[in-house]
Structures are given as structure tokens and as C-alpha cells.
Amino acid sequence: MFTLLVRPLMAAGFAVVVLAFASPSMAAVPAVEATPSYEDLIARLDALPSMLEADAVYDAAAARAQQARALPNPSIVYDRENVYGTGPYNGTGNAESTLSINQPLELFGQRSARIQAARSEADAAGLRREQARWQIAGRLALAYAEAEAAARRHDLAAEALSLTEQDARGVAAMVEQGREATLRGVQAQSEVEAARAALDEARALRDGAFARLSAIALLDRPVQAIGASLLDRTPALPGARSDDPLAVQVATAELDAASRLVTVERRRALPDVSAGVGMRRFRDTGDEAFTVGVELTVPLFDRNRGGIRAAYAEQRAAEARLIAQRQEAQAERLTAEAALAASSSRTRAADSGVAAAEEAYRLSRIGFEAGRISQLELRSTRAALIASRNAAVDARIARVLAEIDLARLEGRAPFGESR
């Protein structure tokens, strides 16, 4: 009589659990605060501190480029000559007063070199800002995907605990009927405790992942659920690109800025020229006359040789970085494309494995209840089912990581289009 009552209840409970296990989206979702969608978070990139820092760095470089166009300030000089001397020059009665204005001329291309160098540095800063934007977007996508994966692993751990408890109840019933040894019941209870500990660990990892997402995205309130799935999205196939990766563009701009600085340092070795015009007044006669002069520095001791050598060294370093960046970007792109293709295949294989594991567990459960399959075989198929479900989550995380790497190289947000 006990067996007749237990089997229908166990079969009904098994059907509900397997249905929830096979379709996590159908499981009951607690009423918790959900995150904004991934697109909403990407749209708020400009408000994140890292992006504000990148914007400020670019604004500083743009301001320096604007300042480089300013002309040097003139100087005003007032002189009084022939005062407090002897004879007729005693006191200030025969003093001569001169008021003049001197203006640096910046000849020999000094001003144009300074402007071009500052403009090149601003262009490089703009590309670095764009690079920072997509790096931040990748970091946000990774935090979003990790939070979603942690939530799924928590749900899987809860379902695994439910299955383990149900199997333990079945084993306990068979132990009471004398169909299984007492040792099997002890082993089943041990598996329940291990599954319960795994659930606690998964809960802690889930809470930590959502806390990191809330911190990175600057969410007003802590969240514990994902609004729209990112793991289930299929990235678009990478297409052929004619332009250089963003990292190579940054290295090229930095080389151009370093080359402009070489010109600036070479211009600094040339003489500085200033022109002056003034008015002189003779005290004894009351006459006035104009004064005109030119001032020229003589590069006798300081020819800026150290500055020129340093600029050339920085130019060589920028050239080396560009060469290395080209090779590295090409290798990274090939690696990211291969990883994306492999992770997509892995995801399809994992989904097929989940379906096979679910069917194997269903059949083993039926055989166990009929007494044709041992508890060890049931435990093995249950462990395979749990492992296959977690492997499907791991495959999706790997696909997201590959898409993040490829998006960073292409200069776009993950799962978005190039701009």
C-alpha cells in the first residue's frame, strides 16, 4: 500500500521538477528588484565615473590645443635715464623717459609647431576616450553576464537540491521496504547536505555578482534579478573590416603626436626674436622721439640638445609600440573570432547535452522506481544532468567573453554595431 501511494506522488513531483529544470524561465521568479536592460545600461555609459574621467582627460587635451593657438603676451617697459648723476644730471631735471612695448614674434615656425603638436595630442586623447568607452562597455557587459550566470547557477543549485531530496525520499522508501541497504539511505542524506551547501554557496556568489553589477552600473538600488537575458543572445558573425582596429589607431595617433613634439623641440633651439616700439621724452627740451628695437637671443649655451634627443627617443618608442600593437591586434582579432565560433558551437553542443541528460535522468528515474536501476546509477545520471546544465551556462559565458574581446577590438559595445 505504501509503495502504491509513494510512486504516484514521486512521479508527479518528478514531472514538476524536471519541467522546471528543463525550462528555467517557467520557474517562479521572486518579486525582487530587476536590473535595467543591457541596452539601458549601455545608454548610461556617459554617467559612469570611468567615462567621466576619460571625458575630462580629453577636455584637458582639447583645452591645451586651444591654448596653444594663443599669441604670447607683450611686455611694457618704462625706463628713466640720466637721473641722480653728477653735474647737470643731478636729480631728475634732465631725465629722459622711455615707454616701450615689446612683442615676441615666434619666428621660424615655432608657433605652428606648437599648435600642431597640441592638436595631435588632443586627437590621440580623443581616440583614447573612445577606446575607454568601449572598454567600460565591455566591463559592464561582463558584469551583467556574470550576474545573470550566477542567478542561473543559483536556480540550478536549488533545482538540484530539490531533485536530490526527492531521490533521497525514494531511497528512504526502498530502505524501509528492504529493497535497498541502510547504507544507501545514509549516502542519499549525505548528498542532500552537499546539495544544500552548494545552494548556499551559489546564493553567496549570486549576491556578490549582483552587488558588483550594481556598483559598476551605479544603480540606485541593489538588484537581485536580470530583466533581459544577455547570455541567450547570439552575437553577429564578424565581418571584414577595412580600417585599423581602435588600438592601432590610438598607437598611430600617439606616434604622430611624438613626431610633432620632435619638431617643437627642434624649434626651441632656434633664437627667440622680440620686436619693440616705444616713445622717448627729453626732459630738458620737451622733445619726443620714437624708439624701435629688435631683441634676439643667442643660442650659445643652451641649444636644447637634450630635449631634442628625448623627443627622438619618445618617437622611437611610439614607433615600436605601433609595430607591436599592429601585430597584437591582428593576433587578438583572430583569437577572438576563433573563440566566438568555438563558443557558439560549444553552446549548441551543451544544449544538446542538456536534452540528452534530461532524458537519461527521466529514464533512470523510471527504472529506479521499478527496481531495475540501482541508486548509484540514478545518482550518476542526476549528477550528469546537473553538470550538463552548468556546462550550458559556462558555454554562454565563454561566448559573451569572446564577443567582448571582439567588440573591444572593433570599437563598439558588445552585442552592438560598430560606430
Features:
single chain, about 425 residues, alpha+beta, Outer membrane efflux proteins (OEP), 2 domains, 4-stranded antiparallel β-sheet, 8 helices, 4 strands, about 65% helix, elongated, disordered N terminus
List the helices and strands and how they pair.
Layout: H1 2-22, H2 38-43, H3 49-67, E1 75-81, E2 96-104, H4 110-177, H5 182-217, H6 246-268, E3 273-282, E4 288-296, H7 305-369, H8 375-410
Antiparallel strand pairs: 1-2, 2-3, 3-4
Helix pairs in contact: 1-4, 1-7, 3-4, 4-5, 4-6, 4-8, 6-7, 7-8
InterPro entries: MdtP/NodT-like, OMP_efflux
Signal peptide: 1-27
Protein name: TolC family protein
What does this 3D model show about the protein?
There is one protein chain. The chain has helices at residues 2-22, 38-43, 49-67, 110-177, 182-217, 246-268, 305-369, 375-410, and strands at residues 75-81, 96-104, 273-282, 288-296. By secondary structure, the chain is α+β, with helices and mostly antiparallel strands. The protein has 2 domains: 2-71 and 106-269 and 304-410, Outer membrane efflux proteins (OEP); 72-105 and 271-303. It has a 4-stranded antiparallel β-sheet with strand order 1-2-3-4, with no helix packed on it. Strand 3 and strand 4 (288-296) form a beta hairpin.
